C-alpha cells in the first residue's frame, strides 16, 4: 500500500544532507515478493536506502542511479503508533528528554560551502594556488573533520584525495535529528513513524561505515521496534567503537522493549541519555559490567527495578549527575556515592529516597513528583543522612513529601535540635498550598531546619477547596527570626494575590533583615486577563509592609514566557547558580 501524503520530512529530505538516496534493486525485488511479514518484525533489507558518499568512502561499488522516492512503498515493516497519539504524558516526558540533550560539540552555523569559499580566497591571497590545508598532518585534519556536522564531514572527501579517508577515522560526532531541518528549528520535534525510514538507514550506514571512535552519538528519531536484531547490532557497533557521549532514545508504545544489555560493554562512556526502554536485568550481567568513566546519566521514561538503579550507581564510580525523568515505576533509592553532586527527580512517583552517604552531593532537586504508586497513598519520605555539602534543595511539597533528618521526622510539632539542622543549604524551594492549613503548619518547622538559606523560592499551588486562612500572627508565632535571618532573595512563583500569600510576604518583609530582592512571578490565569485596577488592588498590600531591611528597594515582577517551566539540563549543570529561576521579563515596581 502506498504511503499517504506526508506532512513531515520524508526520505527525500535526506537528499539535501547525504546526497541522492537510492533504492537497492535487489532489495526492491525482494520487497515485491515478500508481502506482509507475519512475524511483525521488519527486514529493513527489503527497503534499503543507500548513501552514495558512505559507500564510496567504504570502497564499495558505485550505487545504482537515484530515483524519486515520493511514491516510495514499503512492506514488512512493523507499524508502531506515535507516542503522542497513544500517551500524551509520555510524549511530554520525551520532550523534556530531548531538551535535556547536550549540545553536540559541532556547529552547523558555518556550512562547508562557506568554509571552502574562504579557503579558496585564502589561497588566492597567497597567489600561488597551493592547497596548504591538505598538507597539514592527519591528526590535525581529523580534528577539523570531527568538529563538522556529519553531512559536512562526509563531504570533505570531495575536497581532495588527501581528505578521502579522513572522515572514516576521525572521531565521529553524529545526531540523527541534525539530518532534519525541522529538528534543528525545534529541538523537541520528531518525525512520525512513516517518515523515519531514511533516518533509520542513515544511522545504520554511518555506524557500519565509520571506523570509530565515536565521540558523540545521539540517536533519538528512530522507532527501534522496527528491527530488534538490527538495534542489537547498532549497540554492539557503538560499544566496539568506543563511544564517549551517547543518547539512545526509543520511540515505541507501549514502553516494554528491552534495552540491549550490550550497553554495558560501552566502558568508555562519559555521558549517557537513554529513554523509553525497559532496563535489562542487571542480575544476569557479568561482574565486570561497569561504567568506569561515566559522569552524567539521564534516565527518561524507563521501566526498571530498584536493584537495577542501585546496580547503576554501584558500577559508576565517578558519576556526578543523575537525572530521572518520568520513571514508569516508583523511584526508591538509598544513595551511597562518594562522587555524585546532583540528584534530580522529575515527573515521577517517589517511594523512599534516602541520602545515606553522599559527601559530595550539592543538589537534591524534585520537580512535579507524586506520591508513591505502590504501598498505599503515603507520603514520599526524603531522608537526609550524611550530605555535608548539600547546598540546594527543592521543590519540597509538604502535602507529598515527608522530611527526615537523621533519625528525626520533621512534623509541625517536632522539637528541633542541632542534629536536625542542615546548615549547608543556601537555596531552598517549596511548593505550598497557602489555603490548606494542615500543610502550612509544617512549613515553619521545615524552615527551622535550614537557618542559612539565602535564596528562598515558594511556589503557590492552586487549591480547589480551601480549608482555612493563615494570618500574619500565625507566621509571627511559629517562625522565629532565626528562620529567615539570612534570606536575601525571596521569589514567589505562581502568585495569585490572595490574603494568605500576602500574610507570608508581609511576615518575610518584617523579619528578613537582610532581604534585598522580592521577586513576584504572577500566575498566568490570575493576572494576564485581569484589569489594571484589579492588578493594582492585588499589589496594594505590598505598599503597607514595614520592611526591616534597609537594602530592600524594589519589588520585581517577572512574567513567564518560557514554553517549559523547568530545565533538567540547567538543574544538572552545577555551574548554573539557581535553576529555579525561570526565563522571565522584568517589570520593576517601586515600593
Description:
The protein is of the alpha/beta class. Among the domains are: 11-87, no CATH class; 366-591, no CATH class. The protein contains 20 helices and 22 strands. Strands 3-4-5-6-7-8-10-12-14-17-18-19-20-21-22 form a 15-stranded mixed sheet. A hairpin with a 2-residue loop joins strand 15 (401-405) and strand 16 (408-409). The longest helix has 15 residues, at 112-126. It starts with 14 loop residues before the first helix and ends with a strand. InterPro entries: F-box-like_dom_sf, F-box_dom, F-box_dom-containing, FBD, LRR_dom_sf, LRR_FXL15/At3g58940/PEG3-like. This is F-box domain-containing protein. Residues 130-177 form the F-box domain. Residues 24-45 have a biased composition (Polar residues).
Question: What's the short story on this structure?
Answer:
The protein is an alpha/beta fold and about 600 residues long. The chain is built from 20 helices and 22 strands.
